[in-house]
Amino acid sequence: MKVRVKWVEEVSFLAQSESGHAVLMDGPPEGGGRNLGPRPMEMVLMGTAGCSAYDVIHILKKGRADVRDCVVDVDAERAETEPKVFTKIHLHYTVTGKNLKTEHVERAIKLSAEKYCSASIMLAKSVIITHDFVVIETQ
C-alpha cells in the first residue's frame, strides 16, 4: 500500500492514495491554514472508525442480519505536550436494523476490535480504546 502527500501551501497538503483518491488536509486559520480539510490526526480517527464500521457491517451481513445503518462516533483525547499522541479513543456505534440481536452486534464490534480492524488494533498497542453501542430497531 502506498500513499503520497504533497505540500500545497502554508499548512495544506494533498494526500493521494494508490487507489486513485485524494484528500486535502489543512490546518486551522490560527495555525496558518485556511481550514479547507481535516487535520492529519482527524484523518487517523476517521480511518479507524471507517475500518471498524466496514468490519461491523460485513460481519453482520455475513451473518444474514438485516442491518440498515451503522454510524460510529469517535471521541478522542490527546496528550497535553508534544508529541500530542492519542491517549484515549472511544468508539460509539449506532447500529440500525430489523430484528438485530444485541449479542450479534456486540460480537461484530469485538471481532473488529480484536481480529479484523488493522487500524484500531495497531492504535490499541499504545492507546486506550473503548467501545459501546446502541441498537435501533427499524421497520
UniProtKB/TrEMBL annotation:
InterPro entries: KH_dom-like_a/b (IPR015946), OsmC/Ohr_fam (IPR003718), OsmC/Ohrsf (IPR036102). It comes from Iodobacter ciconiae. This is OsmC family protein. Pfam families: OsmC. NCBIfam families: PRK10738.1. It comes from the Bacteria.
